[in-house]
Specification:
Blueprint (H helix, E strand, L loop, with lengths): L1 E3 L10 E5 L6 H11 L4 E6 L20 E4 L15 E4 L6 H6 L1 H21 L4 E7 L5 E7 L10 H14 L7 E7 L1 E3 L10 H12 L1 E6 L4 E6 H12 L9 E6 L5 E3 H11 L4 E9 L4 E4 L2 H6 L9 H14 L14 H10 L19
Parallel strand pairs: 2-3, 2-5, 3-4, 5-6, 6-8, 7-15, 8-12, 9-11, 10-14
Antiparallel strand pairs: 1-4, 11-13
Amino acid sequence: MGIRQPGVEDLVGVRILVTGNMGYVGPVVVEHLREARPDAHLAGLDTGFFGHCLTGTSQLPERRLDCQWFGDVRRPPAGSLDGVDSVVHLAGVSNDPIGTTYEEATFDVNHRATVELARAAREAGARSFVFASSCSVYGLAEEGLRTEESETGPLTAYAKSKLRAEEGLAGLADDSFAVTSLRFATACGMSDRLRLDLVLNDFVAGAHAFREITLLSDGTPWRPLIHVRDMARAIDWAVDRPAGHGGAFLPLNTGSDDWNYQIRQLAEAVAEIVPGVAVSVREDAAPDARSYKVGFGRFRELAPEHQPQVGLAEAIEDLSAGLERMAFADPDYRNSQLVRLRVLDDLRGAGLVDGSLGWASAEPVARG
């Protein structure tokens, strides 16, 4: 289903389709693209699962779009790729907990649908495809910085599905169809559809809800992070990247060397900024197997004008201010609409979503 505004056919500029635009990262990406490319035709494609999860705003982020399509990326609506110059592919199962619960759907959406969407975009005449991949493809890497030449070792269904998608995308890229696989560090920061199932966001929420941050692991694993605004900056660069600048298919670690942190360091940074917060480790906490430090030298070399600009302290302060605007104080936030798995489980419990993570055809089940 497409909702179009009058006269968009006459707009001048690149035509960009952003899939998954109604998630956590999407609103920030759309805002950045609209500001950076006022003459672009921006369209979104989303299932709408998380459309109601607005945080800190009463206005739909989609107001910045020229067109919003509602549909599943496994079955893109007819016409949604017509005339598109570039696809920014954010849609997908977004984390390990969802991947564990809905493993088959994770590979279906993140791997197979990604490759088929890219194939369809190329056949429709698009010249670039930007894929939101993940540094989690490196898995456990105890020594040194992981670079694009390092061995991958994904540990979860989510990470494996991202790597398989990359492998399929590599075969589609050519001189007239540049594919950029941005291996993003772990996302953080405020959004119009905030998620609290990401490590730094969770820590700031815990600081506000409990005045305490309890580490569920021993705090030693390394993790690279990137602010959502800096993700949008990298995506803006990748939209225009020619195949000759980095290769027709480019897997690219996307983040900053300065943002490699141990989990405990993140918790302590939050405690320094949010007053009256203590950091503790659960007595039964075990090491987290997902530990990796990542090097972002190639990204610095290829995209010097689109490097991350948000620092850790600014990210924490921005999140804290956003939660205060929301009057956030929910001690049960990990079971709330701010956690994506909980949203999907609620939709499924109501009979609205099925086990394949598609909208159910049956009538919804009344609750209450």
